[in-house]
Design brief:
Layout: H1 2-45, H2 49-76, E1 85-88, H3 89-103, E2 108-112, E3 121-124, H4 126-142, E4 156-163, E5 167-174, H5 202-212, E6 216-223, E7 226-234
Parallel strand pairs: 2-4
Antiparallel strand pairs: 1-3, 4-5, 5-7, 6-7
Helix pairs in contact: 1-2, 2-3, 3-4, 4-5
Length: 238
């Protein structure tokens, strides 16, 4: 019970950090919606209905983006126990992209689906899986904080999803400086952190959550060219 309380508190702390940046960032799509609305009205008045339709579609995309961010934040703020359900992990990862883009505003973040167009059905607590994924993405972004280059284009984070007949893998890779050799073998232990102000619970709890789902969370690569974490979960029968 104490471990569950710590997991819940850690998730809320991470959420608070994310929420602190959202107020400014969410104003961008809202401002875009306002500007696009004005443009659409002018186009309609001038009988340029085709151009107006395109602007309305842009408004729809921006509104959807805001809705996804708000919906995800509301779900992540839940404090309930694990509630496994049948979910498509590919869809879960895709729906996290708008929020992840906010977290990684100083890096070039890309999402890639596997070659298979099949859904990746798993039995999992959606909120917990989202928290793990956001923790991995946030950690990847944090590794650039002390990197000399300030160019957004040079900071890259890649999230990819691939499935086999039996499991599905989500990979989070960055091109940061890598993890200190003295920490590599202990990175999933409690109170071990690569951040100057980190508490060393994020990866430990993330692995615990994934193991509760009968999966694996592992560090598959880290060197001067970057770090890669791999999350693997068993697939349900189609």
């Amino acid at each position: 019970e104490q471990k569950e309380r710590i997991e819940s508190q850690t998730g809320r702390s991470a959420l608070a950090e994310i929420a602190s940046t959202i107020g400014h960032e969410i104003n961008q799509p809202i401002a875009a919606i306002e500007s696009l609305s004005d443009t659409a009205c002018l186009l309609i008045e001038r009988d340029r209905t085709s151009d107006a339709t395109n602007k309305l579609r842009e408004i729809q995309r921006e509104a959807t983006r805001v809705g996804q961010i708000v919906h995800t934040i509301r779900r992540l703020s839940s404090t309930g126990r694990l509630q496994p359900e049948r979910i498509d992990l590919t869809e879960v990862v895709a729906e996290l992209e708008p929020l992840a883009q906010i977290i990684c505003k100083n890096a070039a973040l890309s999402f890639k689906k596997g070659r298979s167009n099949k859904p990746a059905w798993i039995s999992a607590d959606r909120t917990s899986i989202e928290q793990v994924l956001l923790n991995l993405i946030s950690n990847a972004h944090e590794c650039f904080r002390d990197k000399e280059s300030a160019s957004r284009g040079s900071h890259q984070i890649k999230v990819s999803v691939a499935r086999t007949d039996h499991d599905v893998t989500v990979t989070v890779a960055d091109n940061g400086p890598g993890i200190d050799p003295s920490l590599r073998d202990h990175i999933f232990q409690s109170l071990v952190s690569t951040k100057q102000d980190g508490v060393g619970l994020g990866l430990s709890l993330s692995r615990s959550i994934i193991e509760k789902h009968h999966g694996q969370l592992s560090l598959t690569k880290t060197d001067a060219s970057g770090t890669t974490f791999e999350l693997r979960l068993p697939l349900l029968d189609d």
